[in-house]
Design goal:
Chain lengths: 269, 311
């Protein structure tokens, strides 16, 4: 390690190679969305075409899967935002018995392997005779989405000074007014960022979903079926590209909403 | 004053007063919904899973016998099942070590040298792959590793095709093509979990004070010695924190080995197969308890290393 500000050549090369390793595979998806080859994954593509975008547009099963994914992600995000904010408010405003246990409880659904969460929920639904439906998918998703909202909110609550809340109360505002006019504006962007990340997490989730979905297909389930038993590879290529572009937006959004703070969103998926 | 008076009369005002006077009540109200949700749905489900793992399946009828027994756990030690566990743990360890090695230079450069725009670029550069669709990433590797794919094309066009052949002819880890070999599975795991290692290592490295490194070189340490005796020990909690993710995620994954890899099972696939077509929920549950136990031990060790401060 040099005390100078320039990095050694080896280090720079290794860092750049690492970043390329992270990004080239995703770029390759973009190329394959235009290939004319529809029987194999041949590289380089024999020709380029826009035809598959039209074909994908006309596929009803893709639209259905997309609609279900958006519905599930929206509802799960809303539930997660309410539960995550409540939990963060409680944990950050007081020290109480079992506080550590609550942080652990919130983190557990993503700290344990997805397959454990998945099969746990499935066996619970089985025991309770709950039929698989959109609702069971949402139950699962909301459970592991709480943590991203919670993480973002807890970091922001920590920075929100208690004296602001006291000042508001001293000036005659009640708890609800204080929440509406003082707390909410202060934690708003953190909640938005948490919500976006929760949406992205739910929109992309496949392992838990395979256990809780029954016959319905979210977009990731649809992709998984295409991966296991390819029917029309070019359509999968196009969907893959669109999914990449669609997930970039909430991530960049969450980044810009929280970049000023030391607690940038998304670092703990 | 008048506004305060109306506050006292309105219902919300009165509720607000009660909450202000009894902070414990407010706390309980805040905690109730999330605790109900996570406690009932999630912990309830985990308990349901745990209980099922103590049931067993009747070998003749194929029905679940609802009596508590350790028989199902005993089955985990049959060679076929035991192999699955060993294979998964080996893969998880290899992936964890490799991702620490690949992640370190990226994290180190981002933490110590990147400034301003470059820093943001590195941050976004790790964040975008982290959050891109998991299945799309796996799919990209199916394209890359395919026999007719880009890797074969690249090594062939520089005339090194024979090296790839030699690599694939290695017993156990080789195979017909990269996409049906353990090498392929390993590469996909490494790729998909790498960002989970970079971020905590970078966070740990950013907390290493610059004057510590200067002190080290003032005291006559070479760059290599400073790296070995100052930087690596201080980065270790970050590496352990990252390894929690890479290890746990590899242990529980059943999609990557299903799509890229040989037909030999990993723990996740065993869970999926036993609960699905085989209908042997007790054995599936017992298999699912294995990663929980391994992770509990791992987390306990990580806590002793102080890894949680680096999360």
């Amino acid at each position: 390690m040099h005390s100078s500000q320039r990095a050694g050549l080896g280090l720079r090369l290794a860092a750049i190679a690492g970043l390329l390793f992270l990004h080239l595979p995703i770029l390759l998806i973009f190329l394959y969305a235009f290939t004319t080859e529809d029987r194999s994954y041949q590289f380089p593509p024999p020709g380029l075409t826009l035809k598959w975008f039209g074909v994908t547009w006309g596929r009803a099963d893709v639209w259905e899967a997309l609609a279900l994914s958006i519905k599930v992600a929206s509802v799960s995000t809303l539930i997660a935002m309410v539960l995550g904010t409540l939990c963060a408010a409680a944990v950050s405003r007081a020290r109480f018995f079992g506080r550590e246990a609550i942080s652990l409880l919130v983190i557990l659904p993503i700290a344990l392997p997805g397959i454990v969460t998945g099969i746990s929920l499935r066996s619970a639904f089985n025991l309770a005779d709950i039929p698989y439906s959109t609702l069971t998918i949402i139950l699962g998703h909301a459970t592991f989405c709480v943590v991203v909202v919670y993480n973002n909110a807890v970091a922001r609550f920590r920075r929100l000074s208690g004296s602001m809340v006291e000042a508001s109360m001293d000036l005659g505002a009640n708890s609800f007014q204080t929440f509406r006019y003082i707390i909410l504006p202060n934690i708003g962007t953190a909640l938005m960022a948490g919500g976006m990340l929760a949406f992205a997490l739910s929109f992309d989730e496949v392992i838990v979903t395979t256990f809780t979905a029954g016959q319905q297909a979210t977009l990731p389930i649809w992709m998984l079926e295409e991966l296991v038993r390819p029917r029309q590879r070019p359509v999968t290529n196009v969907v893959a590209m669109v999914v990449v572009l669609a997930t970039f937006l909430p991530i960049l959004g969450a980044y810009y909403l929280t970049r000023s703070g030391s607690d940038t969103a998304g670092s703990g998926k | 004053m008048s506004s305060a008076d109306t506050n006292h009369q309105s219902l919300t005002g009165r509720i607000s007063d009660v909450l202000w006077r009894k902070p414990r009540l407010l706390l309980a109200l805040l905690l109730l919904p999330p605790l109900l949700w996570l406690g009932v749905i999630y912990i309830g489900s985990l308990i349901a899973l745990l209980v099922q793992s103590f049931f067993s399946i009747d070998e003749f009828s194929g029905l679940i016998r609802y009596e508590l027994t350790l028989k199902t756990y005993g089955e985990l030690f049959r060679p076929a099942n035991y192999d699955i566990i060993i294979r998964t743990v080996l893969m998880a360890s290899t992936v964890t070590i490799a991702s620490a090695i690949v992640a370190f230079p990226i994290a180190y450069y981002a933490a110590r040298y990147a400034r301003g725009r470059m820093k943001a670029l590195f941050y976004i550069g790790v964040m975008l792959p982290l959050w891109s669709s998991y299945l799309v990433k796996v799919y990209a590797w199916k394209l890359i590793l395919a026999k007719e794919g880009i890797i074969t094309w690249m090594v062939d066009s520089v005339g090194l095709g024979f090296l790839l052949d030699i690599l694939l002819r290695i017993p156990i880890i080789g195979g017909n093509s990269l996409s049906v070999s353990y090498i392929g599975t390993f590469l996909v795991f490494l790729y998909v979990w790498l960002p989970f290692m970079i971020l905590p290592v970078q966070a740990a490295l950013e907390r290493v004070p610059g004057n510590l490194l200067e002190a080290s070189s003032d005291l006559g340490a070479s760059n290599r010695q400073t790296f070995r005796h100052v930087i690596v020990p201080l980065a270790l909690p970050g590496i352990v924190a990252g390894s929690i993710f890479t290890f746990s995620l590899t242990l529980g994954d059943y999609i990557i080995p299903q799509i890229v890899g040989s037909s030999r099972l990993f723990i996740g696939q065993a869970v999926y197969a036993h609960q699905g077509t085989a209908g042997n929920i007790p054995l599936a549950a017992a298999f699912a308890v294995v990663p929980i136990v391994i992770m509990a031990g791992y987390l306990w060790m990580a806590k002793k290393q102080g890894a949680f401060d680096a999360l």
